[in-house]
Write a structure and sequence with these properties.
Layout (H helix, E strand, L loop, with lengths): L4 E12 L2 E12 L3 E5 L6 H9 L6 E6 L2 E2 L10 E4 L11 H5 L1 H5 L4 H14 L15 H13 L5 E5 L7 H18 L2 E6 L2 H7 L2 E6 L2 E6 L1 H6 L4 H6 L4 E10 L2 E4 L8 E4 L8 E7 L5 E4 L10 E12 L5 E7 L2 E7 L8 E7 L4 E4 L9 E6 L4 E6 L2
Family: Belongs to the ABC transporter superfamily.
Protein name: ABC transporter ATP-binding protein
Pfam family, one: ABC_tran
């Protein structure tokens, strides 16, 4: 993969009327990279995709491809193709006619269109379906026709606007693999909008998490999953359990003070953005261990332990999921075996699976200074001692 920037977005602002959606957004994408724009509804990811495609004019900033400014060019002159969420296939046209539509608009001769359409039908597993119309196809087949129509014009950049959201879960698993494998095979640059965390994780080389028109964090799937930069990112990446703790930072470690429902423990700082005070402790249901509350069952070092009692247990598949009351809070914890309602339990979370953030905003943190990591877009904070 070429490490040089191919698609560059600088200071991009955009909105609808008086409503500002994107605010001075910067983003660089390398040639051949698959980038997923991930976020909840209204975060600005689709607006960003539409601005890249040319269907929305930004109020400020620029968009360039391979050094060429395309900010004010119409969509058909940007060298991009967009696959819509609804597929937008012509219902009166056959598969072959839909795929070849863009080539016909370009003025290619019929033999060349037929050859190119045949190549794409074979590439996308649509051989033998060229004479069918969209109504006679499955959802997965319609999605591949829409992808074929986009690829037919040999775009420099492929834009995908939640193209899998209309598929059922079983088909979606296969098609997401098909798209990812095809993108790697062709070496095409792709920008994929989705609200599905797992979809972004398995398809993208890099994930850009958006919140309120800004980039909350970007990095490889492993980076954003294992090192979320903020409580928002941690929650969005599945660490929805949250409990408040108090402690201090010093000597490369975080000392968690004993509380009504937790024991004192010492955790490695490990680059965490922390200063002494009140912490929000976040963790995933599958990251914790659930044990019976028995005498002498102290937690090992570098592990946080809470006590509580089981409220409910259910089996969503793979493990039993328990709702556990911890003081005035409830958390979800997975276990290979079920615990009965009312059972006193201990919840253990290893340090590497625990995400700690100061409860106060960064500007309110006393005696904190920061180190900027430009590659990951994170701020690593340590406390002065």
């Amino acid at each position: 993969m070429d490490n040089e920037t191919y698609l560059r977005i600088v200071g991009l602002s955009a909105g609808y009327g008086a409503t500002r959606v994107l605010e001075r957004l910067d983003l660089d994408i390398r040639k051949g990279e698959f980038v997923a724009l991930l976020g909840s509804s209204g975060c600005g990811k689709t607006t960003l995709l539409r601005a890249i495609a040319g269907f929305m004019q930004p109020t400020a900033g620029s968009i360039s491809v391979a050094g060429r400014d395309v900010t004010h060019l119409p969509p058909d002159r940007r060298g991009m193709a967009l696959v819509f969420q609804s597929y937008a296939l012509w219902p009166h046209m056959t598969v072959a006619q839909n795929i070849g539509y863009g080539l016909k608009l370009k003025g290619l001769r019929r033999p060349e269109i037929t050859r190119r359409v045949g190549e794409l039908e074979e590439l996308l597993g649509l051989t033998g379906l060229g004479a069918r119309k969209p109504a006679a196809l499955s959802g997965g087949q319609r999605q591949r026709v829409a992808l074929g129509r986009a690829l037919a014009i040999d775009p420099q950049i492929l834009l995908l606007d939640e193209p899998l959201s209309n598929l059922d879960a079983r088909i979606r698993l296969k098609v997401r693999h098909d798209i990812s494998a095809l993108q790697k095979r062709l070496g095409i640059t792709a920008v994929h909008v989705t609200h599905d965390r797992e979809e972004a994780m398995v398809m993208a080389d890099r994930i850009v998490i958006m919140d309120a028109g800004r980039i909350a964090q970007q990095g490889t799937p492993e980076e954003v999953y294992n090192r979320p930069a903020s409580p928002f990112v941690a929650a969005f990446m599945g660490a929805e359990n949250v409990l408040q703790l108090s402690g201090s930072v010093g000597g490369g470690a975080v000392t968690i003070e004993a509380g009504a429902n937790n024991r004192r423990c010492l955790l490695p700082l490990d680059g965490r953005a922390l200063a002494s005070g009140i912490f929000d402790a976040r963790f995933r249901a599958g990251a914790a261990e659930l044990l019976p509350d028995e005498p002498g069952s102290g937690a090992p070092d570098a592990m946080l332990e809470f006590s509580g009692h089981v409220e409910t247990a259910s089996y969503p598949g793979g493990a039993w999921r328990h709702s556990v009351q911890v003081g005035r809070n409830q958390v979800l914890v997975d276990s290979p075996r079920p615990f009965e309602r009312g059972t006193a339990v201990r919840i253990r979370i290893p340090a590497e699976k625990l995400f700690l953030f100061n409860t106060l905003g960064a500007s309110q943190r006393p005696h904190a200074h920061s180190l900027h990591d430009g590659h990951k877009g994170r701020v690593l904070e340590t406390s002065e001692t």
